[in-house]
Amino acid sequence: MASSDKKIIKYRRPFRINIGFIIFLILFIYMCFSIRSYMSRNKVRYYEVVDGGMVDNTEYTGMILRKESVQNAPASGYVNYYIREGKRAAVGTRIYSLDETGNLKKYLEENSLNKAALSSDNLNELKNQLAALSMAYSDAEFSKVYDGHFSLDSSISEYTNLNALDNLDAIMKKNGISYSQVTSPSSGVISFNIDSFENMTPEKITAADLDKSKYVQNYIKAGELAANGKPVYKVVTSEQWSIVFPLSDADKARYADRKQLKAVFREYDLDLTGNYSVVTGGDGKEYGVLTFDKFMVKFISDRFETFRIQTNNETGLKIPKTAVTEKTFFTVPVGYLARGGNDVDQGFYKEVYQDGKVSVQYTPAEIFYQTDDLYYLDASDKSIWKSGDYIVKPDSQERYQIGAQASLKGVYNINKGYAVFKQIDVIAENDEYDTVRKNMKYGLNVYDHILLNGADAKEGEPVYQ
Fold it and tell me: Which of 58, 156, 300, 354 has the most CB atoms around its CB within 10 Å?
């Protein structure tokens, strides 16, 4: 019988390294580390420098002054207009009729003579007026809706009223109705907007006059009763007009040497260049005056108008104000600059103390700004330059102790992945942006990336865009 007592030995598989698994594990760890690093980075907002200038956004509200002749009613009566607001009239042109008894008004209402059909040209003109009124609408200028409504009324009166009835005199005579026709005593543009400023001059104006909230206009509409001697309309006899506006101290300095200024009237999509002057008003304050010699009729219904002055013709590099900050630097005389062995690097000969001995060592330097007399060197905690260090003038034993400081206005450039201060020279500004000089030796270039919030940056700090 064969023996069943046999020794069984367990087979051990040889250990094999799974290269694929190890590579996968390394990649996985690397990805986790990268994701964690990315999520924990202090990412910043940056701005790309662009070419350009800017327009000053300061707005002014001024009073429009014209050569206006107010015409009063020769007697009491009901008014019916022949002409619309803003239309030019020659001497002797019929402006309105005056019906002292009211019979003419009653007759027109009963016989609908003032409801003549409008021509296609009349309708087109009314549509254009409505479109202009709609485009210029602003909640802040809601009162102009009433002015527009009156202007439309006067236009319709001209198109459909007495002016279209050639045989009116015969009809009225037949019916025993008498009325008088009033003509223009001078040539000019007709306006029915009557206020208390027709005889105002820049030298009389006060701050209270420029308070638009207290401004009151008066209209006598077609068919209304006009009292004897009361204003009915006015004639503007000249194309020349002015707008008077308040001046701050900053405005006075900004426009001090200007003889002309460009005014931008956004409501009318109009830019006008006018002669600029400064006058002392009736309250002793100084006011700016812009005088124009065209487009008066566009503003015929306006006494106050909002505009801005475009003074900025400077072009440079446009940067946001939030990027601008200040930094303190050491200043050293220009005569101490030295060149490296390749005659390209620039730096200074710095005194170095070692083993109780003093030696002079050439030290490369990054220069942040230069004037005719001084170089500006980094004065931060990480700088190689410290207050009290001595530098030596080349080919001389003359020494200069570093310590004097000055501040520069600038931004932080992040093109290299870390923050580098760049000095700027502001040549124009508004509330949001500065225009800085381009092509400066140590300044910015177009398309540079700069930190949007310069106040939070530190020199040499890594930046992840």
Answer: 300
